[in-house]
Amino acid sequence: MKKLTLPLCWLPCLAFATPNHHDEQIKNVAKPIAPQIQPELTQTAPNSQPIDISLQELNQNPPLVHQLLSDALFARQTDAIATLLPVYQQFPNADKTLIQFAQAKLASLQGKNNEAIHLYRQILAEQPQLNVVRIELAVALFNAQQNNAAEDQFNKAKSAENLPAPVMQLIDAYLAALKKRSSWQFGASAYYVQENNINNTSNSPEIENTGYVKGESMLPRKANGFAYSADLSRDFNLTGSHYLTFQNDFSGRSYWNSHDDDELTNRTLLGYTYKNEKQTLRLLPFFEKRWSGGSSYRKTQGVRAEYNHWLSPNWQISTALEYGKQDYYDSQAQDGSSKLASITLLWLPKPQQYFYVGSDIGFERTKVRQFSADTKSLRFGWGQEWQTFGLSSRLGFAITERDYHDTAKLGNILDLGKVRSDEVFSTTLTLWKRDWHLFGITPKLQLSWRKHDSNLPTLYSYTDKNINVIFETRF
Fold first, then answer.
1. Among 139, 215, 321, 361, which one has the highest count of C-beta atoms within 10 angstroms of its own C-beta?
2. 96-109 vs 131-143: helix axis angle to the nearest 10?
3. What share of the chain is helix, strand, coil (3-state, %, to 5)?
């Protein structure tokens, strides 16, 4: 059979010639939240030797129990407070304020900040001059993510006369942490890219078993340029643990020798957030627009829900649900909707190390069924701060399976005889030196590998390998 050359212009709706919007979902998976570090004041417990005393002896010595409970509160000894408090409560002349303070302190140490806040407020309602209680209330409000109320209480505590210098330093540290927590968060990155297959296609000259061969424009093309991204966000504390959230994510690629392949995406989110010491819930309507080759390509309107929960100090679960309505400017064939469900489990065995595993499911429904697809992904990752040379590393691996819904047709004309099905394997290793930075910009070496296997291999199977030096900043 005579083979015919098939030029790109003959097929205006080539699936592989458009930006791969399925891969954009990778950016929107559930992401863990880093643990927040709170200021600490170094405290020295009173000089004392361990005491071997029976419960019966404690019951007969109220002054000793009072002293031991006060020392345990000062030293933040949860077990000792829990043991001594019931003993002290039974004494007829027990100090009511000390009991309430011990109950509040115990609740705070156990992560029950709302209970602690209620008890601290009860004490201050009767004795507003107790500045140590006000400071503990402010710390509990800080831990409960009630930023406005915490700042107010810290400022009131700071105005007290004859405040010890270490306590003043602690309050100033908390106020600085609150200012940083409530300020705009900004991050950006940029790096040079050298693409050997910018159109993500196979280097096979044939088009399956159709008798056609590809024109030059349908074979892998090279391009050089740079990639960039920036994100801006802020949580505005409305009242208590309730926030108004703004986020904007911006990313793109520009090629000086192939501007037709330039890409630009901007997503703006504005919505509601609830935060406390263990969990964060966000409900964020969003608008996203994408440009390709300098022209409007697609717009998406939708809503995103996120939930992060600390199961323990070392384990966190993160989830995300997203729905979007997609409208394409030049082709209505791919108009429709997208849905994403994502979950990630994070394990922090120690501050210098973390591991994660995640899974994602995506559903895309379009007017023309051959572009509709179901996507399933499994992700693994490992982050490490090494003592050697001050190096840090981040390793990620992902497996993705994508199944389309109808027989693939090039340009809705050339029947390829199969329903397209793809598998994607990818891994990324990022290395950087923690003390290498200039003006807040850190260089990072990133090695990435990606293998795309398709049951239509002459069109969609390819392998990518890249080495990039990424310049990142965050403040």
1. 139
2. 20
3. 30, 45, 25
At residue 336, the pLDDT reads: 93
**Number of C-beta neighbours around residue 213 at 10 A:** 16
Q: Which residue do the tokens 């083979």 mark?
A: 3
Write out the DSSP string of 223-251: EEEEEEEEEEEEEEEEETTEEEEEEEEEE
Tell me the per-residue pLDDT of 324-380, one tens digit each, with 9 for 90 and over. 999 999 888 899 999 999 999 999 999 899 999 999 999 999 999 999 999 999 999
3-state secondary structure (DSSP) of residue 182: coil
The predicted-structure confidence for 51-90, as pLDDT tens digits, reads as follows 557 666 667 677 888 888 888 888 888 888 888 888 888 8
Which tens digit of pLDDT belongs to each residue from 403-430?
999 888 887 788 888 999 999 999 999 9
Cα dist. 248→44, 89, 317, 363, 419 in Å?
Answer: 45, 54, 24, 24, 37
Which secondary-structure segment (H or E) carries 79? helix 78-89
Q: Is 296 in contact with 289 (CB distance < 8 Å)?
A: yes
- How many helices and strands (H and E) does the chain possess? 9, 16
The Cα-based distances of 140 to 37, 96, 202, 238, 301 in angstroms read 14, 21, 58, 18, 39
Which of 3, 109, 12 is closest to 332 using CA atoms? 12
H/E run at residue 136: helix 131-143
In this predicted structure, the answer to whether residue 46 has a pLDDT above a threshold of 90 is: no
Residues 382, 356: Cα–Cα separation, whole Å: 7
Residues 171, 173, 176: CA angle, nearest 5 degrees: 110
Q: Please, which residues have CB within 8 angstroms of residue 73's CB and are 6 or more apart in sequence?
A: 81, 101, 102, 105
Residue scoring higher pLDDT (413 or 189): 189
Q: Which residue has the higher pLDDT, 50 or 33?
A: 33
Tokens of 191: 């790096």
Residues with Cβ within 8 Å of residue 472, at least 6 apart in sequence: 187, 188, 189, 441, 442, 444
- Is the separation of the CB atoms in 145 and 277 below 8 Å? yes
| Closest-CA residue to 248 (of 271, 266, 229, 227) | 266
Please tell me the distance from the alpha carbon of residue 35 to that of residue 31, in angstroms, as a whole number: 13
CA–CA separation, 116 vs 436, rounded Å?
43
Query: How many C-beta neighbours within 10 Å does residue 267 have?
Result: 23
